Amino acid sequence: MNFSSVTKMPFSTTAVWPSLDAVDPRVKRAFWAIVVPMSLLPPVMVYLAGAHHGEAFLSGASSKSWGYIAAIFFVCELLSVGLMGWLAKAVATTWNGKVSYGNAYLLAAISPIPLWFSSLGLLVPSLAFNAAVSMIALAVSCALVFQGVRSLCHIKEELEAAVITQIVFGAGMLVWGVLLLLLVILPG
Questions:
Q1: What digits encode the pLDDT tens for the residues 150-174?
Q2: DSSP 119
Q3: Residue 13 φ/ψ, nearest 5 degrees
Q4: Residue 44 resides in a domain
Q5: The model's pTM
Q6: Measured between alpha carbons, how far is 173 from 5 in angstroms, rounded to an integer?
Q7: What end-to-end distance do the CA atoms of the chain give, in Å?
Q8: Rounded to whole angstroms, how far apart are CA atoms 172 and 176?
Q9: What angle do helix axes 101-110 and 66-94 make, rounded to 10 degrees?
Q10: Which domain holds residue 112?
């Protein structure tokens, strides 16, 4: 697996997905190797952005306890990946997908990677820039879910994969929206 093939993952079911499906995915390994380190990135960025230039994003941000908010954000991220893995398996199984919990969880661990990386945009104190970066990350993440559903969940029909993607990604966006809302409503 090289960087070139990884960048093709959102656009092809043959890029890296077959090699991921061939490996016996261990939930614990994916959790510790992908989810935990990547989930640390947004809370750290939220803490840094809130503490250093939070007023550019949210009025009254300087009075918030950004360490507390970042910790809650981190825990919610970890819980949401498990929830998304369960949902991906449940929905794909409903559509006659032959998906193991390990593959569904692997899909849930890989698909938010663009969103995690988009948090680096918080280094730039511009709401418009961060909104654009987030929209691009959402599009790439959605493409990863679609290709992952087709490959890891063994859904060959594009329409079925699109329906599963819509349900799983829609729920993921709801969770993502709640996480962003937490940043605004959590007390200082």
A1: 888 888 889 999 999 999 989 988 8
A2: G
A3: -85, -10
A4: yes
A5: 0.82
A6: 26
A7: 44
A8: 6
A9: 140
A10: 25-185
